[in-house]
Design goal:
There is one protein chain. With 263 residues, the chain is an alpha/beta fold. 37% of the residues lie in helices and 25% in strands. It contains ten helices and 15 strands. Helix 8 packs parallel to helix 9.
């Protein structure tokens, strides 16, 4: 006996994203309110919420749905991969221009890093060091790209490896450049919701000669729990063109090399 895996339709994915945005903004929403807002039955909403809950994005409880992706927990990679696609592409193309053939490059488990990974074969030969299983999958069959996996404990929500094994491997490596993303920037400091991720990114930072941060404008609007690294510690910061002029001015006033990525 075989069973077919259920695949969401484009309309369902759009509704899932819209529901997620609504709940992330409000923090908690009644299920009946979601049904009224989107003009669907409560049964349909329950199916949508079950799907989102299985991805670790939202949580159902007594007629309401709450956001899992808060200051404590980051949204799943499936959801993040669908957000700000144009901005991530622009950031990745800007980052690519900072890479030279023959270099060793560290990529974190961010979805912007995945966008950059898809472009890296243009500058081969390269050595790529990463804790991201999706980056490994993207580059596994590319000639001229040598891959080093950090290994470690695998976390399904981000499809990446973290923990003591990961940081120990990174401590014994030295790379030319590290490209890092962050879910939140507050008061000129990068923050992340997961302490384990902070430790890995710090180890990557220490293993690289040059450190580059890429962040779209939405990161300046978010908050997270754990401080990682001040913007002033990066050699270059790449932002997208929609970043507010006040944030751009603050970065420049700090004497940081700033690149504005155009779509």
């Amino acid at each position: 006996m075989t069973s077919a895996r259920r695949t969401d339709t484009p309309n369902q994915r759009q509704r899932h994203d819209a529901i997620t945005e609504l709940v992330l903004h409000a923090g908690s929403v009644r299920i009946e309110e979601i049904a009224e807002r989107f003009g669907v039955s409560t049964m349909t909403v329950h199916r949508d919420l079950d799907s989102l809950a299985s991805q670790g994005i939202l949580r159902k409880s007594r007629g309401t749905v709450t956001a899992v992706a808060s200051s404590l927990i980051e949204a799943s990679i499936e959801y993040r991969a669908r957000q700000q696609r144009a901005e991530k592409s622009a950031l990745a193309h800007a980052a690519l221009r900072l890479i030279e053939p023959g270099q060793s490059v560290i990529l974190d488990d961010s979805t912007t890093g995945l966008a950059l990974a898809e472009l890296l074969p243009q500058h081969r030969p390269l050595t790529v060091i990463t804790n991201s299983q999706r980056v490994l999958n993207t580059l596994a069959d590319r000639d001229g790209v040598a891959l080093i996996s950090t290994g470690g404990q695998h976390y399904q929500w981000c499809d990446a490896y973290m923990g003591a094994v990961t940081t120990e491997v990174l401590a014994n490596l030295r790379a030319d450049v590290f490209f890092m993303s962050t879910p939140a920037i507050t008061d000129g400091i990068c923050f992340h919701q997961h302490h384990e991720t902070v430790l890995v990114k710090r180890a990557m930072f220490a293993a690289a000669k040059r450190r580059v941060l890429y962040a779209d404008h939405t990161k300046f609007e978010h908050r997270a729990l754990h401080a990682m690294t001040p913007l002033s510690d990066f050699d270059t910061v790449i932002v997208d063109a929609a970043t507010h002029r006040d944030h751009i001015a603050a970065i420049r006033d700090g004497g940081i090399d700033l690149v504005i990525a155009e779509k």
